[in-house]
């Protein structure tokens, strides 16, 4: 059971990183940004679908709905935005070639 929860947590954490990088991507659609903002507001708002007064059910809806909605939003992204967001979430540099790395202007003399 613990291994399953750890796996689910790592998937949700990975989706959250990808969503963060996709949100910051210049070609991310407006509906995606609105969806992520709405999901964040739902997560931190006092208004809830199932009240948190119910001991486990109030928390369980947040633990189920938020990851499912996040995964659904990511699955609707354009392929190039999703691919670039996954690259950045994995720690790879951006594939933006507009500003290539240039050699230094001053050469070192030994």
UniProtKB/TrEMBL annotation:
InterPro entries: DUF1232. Residues 88-110 are annotated as: Disordered. It holds the Pfam family DUF1232. Signal peptide: none annotated. One of its GO terms (cellular component) is endomembrane system. Keywords: Membrane, Transmembrane, Transmembrane helix. It is found in: Endomembrane system. Its main location: membrane. Residues 35-68 form the DUF1232 domain. It is a multi-pass membrane protein. This is DUF1232 domain-containing protein.
């Amino acid at each position: 059971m613990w291994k399953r929860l750890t796996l689910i947590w790592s998937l949700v954490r990975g989706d959250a990183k990808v969503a963060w990088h996709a949100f910051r991507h210049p070609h991310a659609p407006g509906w995606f940004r609105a969806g992520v903002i709405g999901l964040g507001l739902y997560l931190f708002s006092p208004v809830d679908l199932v009240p948190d007064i119910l001991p486990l059910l109030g928390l369980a809806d947040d633990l189920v709905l938020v990851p499912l909605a996040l995964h659904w939003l990511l699955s609707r992204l354009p392929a190039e935005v999703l691919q670039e967001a996954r690259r950045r979430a994995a720690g790879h540099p951006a594939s933006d070639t507009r500003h290539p790395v240039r050699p230094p202007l001053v050469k070192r003399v030994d």
